[in-house]
Amino acid sequence: MKRTIAITALAMVFLMTLAVPAFAQSLSLTTTYDMEGTINLQKQAGHLCNTGAEVKQTIVGNGTMQKAQTINMIEGRIMMEDDNNWVAGATPLTVTTVWELCAPPKYVYDDSADYADDLAVPLSSLFPIGNGDSQPKVATVADTRALTSQIWAVQVQADPGFSGSLYQNAVAANGPFYDAADEVLDSNADLEWIDSGGRDFSDHWRWNDGKMVVGSDYIGSYFDIEQHARTSQGTLRRYIDISSPFNHGYLMENMSVVGKSDVQETFAMQNLPAGSDIVGDWWNLF
Fold this sequence. Notes:
Layout: H1 2-19, E1 27-45, E2 53-74, E3 77-101, E4 107-109, H2 123-126, E5 144-146, E6 151-158, E7 163-174, E8 178-179, E9 184-185, E10 205-208, E11 211-214, E12 221-243, E13 250-272
Antiparallel strand pairs: 1-2, 2-3, 3-6, 3-7, 4-5, 6-12, 7-12, 8-9, 10-11, 12-13
């Protein structure tokens, strides 16, 4: 009987081990704020291509504010949920958030190039191609330029005595890629890929019959955001400048509203999926 119980217990431990994903090296932060008076807050989360994106936020002005923020980062990916609600006091109270993505923009040929009429630079020219040589094949990029700055920004300013709110729930990820702007590898150079003539890069991504194939532990390349910005009286500003060389998508918005405004939005840019074995959040057990 004891032997049967022991075997059953061992089996349960084994099954639980299979269910729990491998521990991911991560940085997590959860903060709640309850503030009243003169506020001056500057905050940055992530470091561009090290974490898939860089998020900067400032809060400046006078009033009362409740804020709840959760941030989680692993290599190549950043997640943030941020909820801000406030009433401005003697002076306006302003919240500004800027996402700068690591995900590569669409490149176009410079106007001075002989083939500028071709417009889009072929995707294969921007990334290494496993072609059987000792080095990846990369086209000359001296006559190309990035179409967009990969920015998603919002600013909500509530006038004295009026309310404002800003909610956003977003995730940005991007694995190693070849930077056509300066022809050097990004900060993940220790994970760099090479074709069959050298080191194996199968755990990241490569070309296969003209298509991009990701490896089992590739972090993915994407940006998803849900955002709600509102003020009962004040100024709302939004600036979006994003493109993708994978689907040639392009999105630009530059707006300013003085008065009452309410903007709700969801956006998704899916460039490359995560690999099948990518480590998930440690608390997602099933």
